[in-house]
Amino acid sequence: MRMRELDECFQASDKPLTVTDALAAFSNRLSCLAEVEKVPLRDSLRRILAQDLLAARNIPPHDNSAVDGYAVYYEDLNLDKVTSLPVTGRIAAGHPLDREAAKGEAVQIFTGAPAPEGPDTIFMVEDCQEDGDNILLPPGIKRGANLRHAGEDVKTGDRVLSAGIRLRPQDVGMAASLGCAEIDVFKRLKVAVFSTGDEVRDAGDDLPAGTIYDTNRYSIMTMLKQLGCGITDVGIFPDDLAEIRNGLEAASLDHDLLVTSGGVSMGEEDHVKAAVEELGALHMWKLAIKPGRPIALGQIDCGDRQVPFIGLPGNPVAVMVTFMCIARPLILLLSGASQMEPVLFKVPAGFAFDKKPGRREWLRAHLKKQADGGMVVQKYPADGSGILSSMVESDGLIELPEDLESIQVGQLVDFLPFNEVLG
Q: φ, ψ for residue 299 (rounded to 5)?
C-alpha cells in the first residue's frame, strides 16, 4: 500500500465525522493486505475465501430419491384407484440399477439412492401396501413426486461461494459437496497488540497500590481472534517514549497491523502519540459517537510499506464498542472480507430515552421476553464507559443514529447482538 493512500485515509478532520463518513473513508482508500494460501477444507472455518468457488459438477450429481419407497412410471398408474405392480428390483444408496427399468414394474428404492432410468415418480413406502411380489400404490400422487433431479441444488458452473465471505459450517459443507479437499483463503492478518502505562499490570501479577489489571489487551486480542487474525501479544510498555518507540518499530517489521488502547491523548504521560508520529503519522479522529473518543488512526513507516495503527480509547466499554463498530470493519477490509457491516435487527424498545442529537450512540442492552411471547430490548441501567460488567450482563448494543433525539416505549430500535460481531 502506498504512503499517499494511508495518509489520505487516516488524515483527520477538524469537523466531527459521522461513523458512515469515517467507514467510507476506510473502504474507499484501503485494500486487502493479506496474501492467498491453500488450506485443508477441515481447517477453513471462519477463514476468508480468496476466490469465488464455482461448481465443477451438479449437486446432486444424479437423479435420486427423496424417500424410501418405490419408483414407477407415472403412465402406469390408475388415476382413480389402487394400482398393483410387480416389484422387480432394489436400489440402495451407492448401488444404481444395472439396467433400464421397464414399464409396468416397480423398483424398490431407498433415500438418496440413484433413480433408475425411466421411472419419473416415487411413492413413499408408508403409503404403499405389499401384496405378495406386488406393491399396491394408492391414487392421487403427482407426477415427479419425491424425485430429486441432478443439479437441483447446484448446477455445473454456478458460483456457490463468493470471494470475501467468512466461511461458516454450511459453506464448508457446500465446498465438501463439490469435492474440494483444499480451498483458497486469505492468510491471517498478523496483528500486534500492546498496552502502555506504569499503572497497568498483567493478569496474574501482583497488584501494588495505585495499579490496575490490564483488561483491554485481553478484550482486544479475543475480538481479533474471533475475526480470524493471527495475534502477537507484545505486552505492556511502561510510560517511556524510547521504549514504546522501539517496541512499535520492532513490531512493525513482521506485522500487518498494530492495535492498542489508551495512551493516545494529549496528556504528558501519553507517549504513544509521540512515538507513532516519530515513526510515521498519527491522526486523532473526531468522531461524533458515544462512547468512543478518542480514536487514533495512523501508520508506521517500515521500509517500502506502511503498517496501519489503531489506537482505541482507554475505558474498557469504549474499547469494545469502538472495536466492534469502528475497528472491526477496517480489520475485515484489510483481511480481504467483502462484508464489513454487521446485521442489525429491529426490536421494540422496553424503555424511554432522551438522546443528544448529532452523534451516534450505542447503548448496552439485553433482550427480555414478554408475557405474550414477544421480545423487547431493555437498556442496561448504568452507562459509564468504565463499567465492564454492563457488557457482561448485556446481549448486544442498541444503535441510535445521529438524527434521533428520543426513544419511546414500543418504538423499534436497531439492535446489534454481540454474537453478530463477536461470534
A: -150, 155
Assigned C-alpha cell, 69? 419407497
| Neighbouring-strand partners of residue 375 | 369
Question: What are the Cα distances from residue 11, in Å, to 154, 287, 372?
Answer: 46, 13, 51
Question: In this predicted model, what pLDDT tens digit does every residue of 55-112 receive, in sequence order?
Answer: 999 999 999 999 999 999 999 999 999 999 999 999 999 999 999 999 999 999 999 9
Handedness of CA 284, 289, 293, 298 (dihedral sign): negative
pTM to 2 decimal places: 0.85
Hey, what's the cell of 155? 448446477
List of domains in the chain:
3-34+188-224+234-329 (3.40.980.10), 36-58+154-187 (3.90.105.10), 64-148 (2.170.190.11), 345-421 (2.40.340.10)
Q: How far is the CA of 309 from the CAs of 202, 272, 405, in angstroms?
A: 22, 11, 34
> φ and ψ at 279, to 5 degrees?
-90, -15
Q: What is the pLDDT of residue 2?
A: 40
CA separation for the pair 221, 172 (Å, rounded): 25
**Sign of torsion over alpha carbons 387, 393, 394, 400:** negative
Chain segment 162-175, per-residue pLDDT in tens: 999 999 999 999 99
pLDDT (tens digit, 9 = 90+) per residue, 112-122? Answer: 999 999 999 99
Report the percentage of the chain scoring pLDDT > 90.
78
Decide: 87 and 133 in contact? Cβ < 8 Å. Answer: yes
Alpha helices in 11-89 (DSSP H): 19-29
- Whether the Cβ atoms of residue 245 and residue 275 lie closer than 8 Å to each other: yes
